[in-house]
Amino acid sequence: MGHRIGKLVPFSVQVVALAVVAAGGTAVALAADVAPGFSGRHRPPGRGGGVDLEVQSLDGSGNNRAHPRWGSAGQPYSRVAPARYADGRSAMVQGPDVRWVSNRVFNDTNQNIFSDRRVSQWGFVWGQFVDHTIGLREEGTAEKADIAFSAADPLESFTNTLGGIPFTRSRPAPRPAPGGGPRQQTNLVSSYVDAWAVYGGTRERLEWLREGPVDGDLTNNGPHLLLQDGYLPRRDSRGDPGTAPAMAVDGMLLGRPGRAVVAGDQRANENIGLTAVQTLFAREHNRVVDLLPATLSAEQRFQIARRVVIAEQQFITYEQFLPALGVTLPRYRGYRPDVDASLSNEFATVGYRAHSMIHGELEVSSAADRYSTAVLDQLRRGGVQVEADGADVELAVPLNVAYFNPDLVPALQLGPLLRGIGAEAEYRNDEQIDNQLRSVLFQVPVAGNPQCLDGPALPQCFRGVVDLGAIDVQRGRDHGIPGYNQLRRAYGLPARRTFRAITGEATEEWPRDPRLTAGKEVDDPSALDFVALFDAAGKRVDPASEEASTSVTRGVRRTALAARLKAVYGSVDRVDAFVGMVAEPHVRGTEFGELQLAIWSRQFQALRDGDRFFYRTDPGLEMIRRVYGVDFRRSLGDIIALNTDIARSDLAPDVLLV
Predict the structure, then answer these.
(1) What is the pTM for the complete model shown?
(2) 316 pLDDT tier (thresholds 50, 70, 90)
(3) What is the CATH number of domain 77-166+182-483+576-658?
């Protein structure tokens, strides 16, 4: 979810030139230049030529020399398909009430269904880290489009004293001229995979994040990022929190915003998994700085470390994250200056919203003596489920406790938390969304209720409803995203003519079932019952067993999804793009249906091919490896082990897979 930030300014440094002796005694000449950063040249002894050490700008400008604003912050999202508005310009296309749709399509009725390819929870945690690097919509002001909520809906199990679900339209991008085309939206961050989430996009934010004074002069900053006992700084770490960079706060942080952690992206407090990976890469930056010779200037060590961290984020994204999800791109043929890497509206608003993957809780397992009795008691009071078993302890953190609760990261400790993220599979990427996101997003439980863990008791813990699935559909209408079939055509896929063709099911009709109320099946709660559960081996799972909450990868419901979609929409051409996309069966060997896979493949290919600093084409990275012995080619598990007290042998070879 986006939050507005201030004007974005390219990074620049003063002109510096020096000669140093790098690791191994190799002579290196480095020079600094004006914006977008310092540049330099390495000339191996006895050879001519050199290697530019140009540093990419903080805001993405200048990456493409012929089109310097392509992919840069503050530009409108690109579009693959023409915008679709009711009046051709701005008015949202109407459709079924989206909470009503959510109750019939996204409602998981508290049944966990896991990735059948055993993608770990790193799938959604790393995905969010990348998301906060490449996309941030500009929020609106007072243009409300609240989502209707009906307490009389037979499929509604939650109470909402607000009477509706708040929704504000994204701020429209300025049109090039009066009457100059349909409404567009702005991406406030750089589209490139450039570790924006670690460093931010303005020199003001970066200066605050770096060790040293905050006086408007970056030349007196140290090479390290500011950490406190190895954890991200808080807004009050430098004194007055009012002078700290803006950070989004919600939930538990609303009453104490000064305790929000500060990072390159303002959404770093959103959940503890995200806060943990932000912390990991701040530590990694400092680790790389410490590998560089002290004879380099602070600015040079900072920029070399930033370059390595950017390459690491790219390397993990393209060598681990995408393959784990089954995304295979065409062969890389080098940088293409004719490719615009800008994030598309379709990707940001529909394709990358894989919220069904998000697990309802994060689990941490560790030796019991790692935590004091006082800490375990504190965790219990905070809503964490603590189960001691001899020398071991199991900690389960429901998402409603993990939201905007950065104090949990040092309490749980970074190493165990990061290991725990990789120890269990994420949820299956499908149409079902956990109620932690589908109904209680970011809310604080009502006082006096028991521990609000995920499950049937969850509605008793809250008096409001915030439905991320419903918001996903509404955001598509807000941004003028075409309907499902229109979007399929835009991505070169044939339109679907029946609802069963969308879902891959054998029927789109209601079954003859005495448990269903004839003629009112779409409003019958029994329509959502699971009648069969299966594990990854295809073995049937007893609904009353422990395995039903830990091992299920496929479920069969009393009614076909196609039948429910038909009752909701009537015509396949009325289906919202997001709803149709998540309803599709997976392409074999992937976590995605056809449309979502096409959206991801197109966007990640553009982010790769249109990036002049991509790790596979950037000669400066090879120079850094050769001269300083610092190699960016490390897996996520390697980086966790290098920056925590968790041994590499205690992590999976590929932490993206369980």
Answers:
(1) 0.91
(2) very high
(3) 1.10.640.10
